[in-house]
Specification:
By secondary structure, this protein is mainly alpha-helical. It has ten helices and no strands. The structure holds protoporphyrin IX containing FE. The site of protoporphyrin IX containing FE has 25 residues, from helix 5, helix 6, helix 7, helix 8 and helix 10.
Length: about 200
Amino acid sequence: MYHRQPQPEEIPGYTYGSPALPSSPVTLEELEKLKAAVMFSDDDVAALRMAGDVLATQLDDILDVWYGFIEANPFLLHYFSTPDEQPISDYLRHVRARFGMWILDTCYRPYDQAWLDYQYEIAQRHYRTKKNTTDHVNSTPLINYHYIVALIYPITATVKPFLSNRGHSADDVERMYRAWCKSVTMQVALWGSPFMNADAF
Ligand code: HEM
């Protein structure tokens, strides 16, 4: 599907940077502390740019692996299905395209206010406040948060072979992989906000 980077306007429901998005409850100052907590540094920013160049030409193959994993586990496919457990193919297809954009955003976007605001949007799309609304589907009201945390492992482990098959040194692959792990961990931490009481977040 992606011979070049996908164009955002071709992706249904992808609203990164939209002025209509609500502001993140997390401030930029808090984001700086979260970065420090996952040991995310300027070197990780550089490593993610390199990872973006490596992954951008492999998006479909990566998404095939991730979707293969979801489809092989009915308890995960459940969250893309109707109440009588019929997978909703348009829902899967649209979210897959936005997932591809997310890979690029994770690698290339500055982690600024617009990024924080879209983090909040993604969080709510996993929670009852916004799940299903973007694609107008009748599916589960939310995704149980423990699975979001658990998926950090497959979403990081399965990316490593893709980072290493473009001829980079073992050191660079490790740098890219670590930066990817830190960013995904940080994002999943941010996505906890709608699931928790404000004072516990
Ligand atoms: C590390 C864990 C996860 C990552 C990185 C991730 C990433 C994403 C991304 C990037 C999107 C699209 C955001 C957008 O609309 O622009 C999305 C949406 C979605 N994800 Fe996840 N996700 C994770 C965990 C899960 C889990 C465990 C499930 C359960 C099967 C899941 C199911 C969904 C569904 C159903 C949507 C569509 C929500 C909607 O808009 O209605 N995700 N996810």
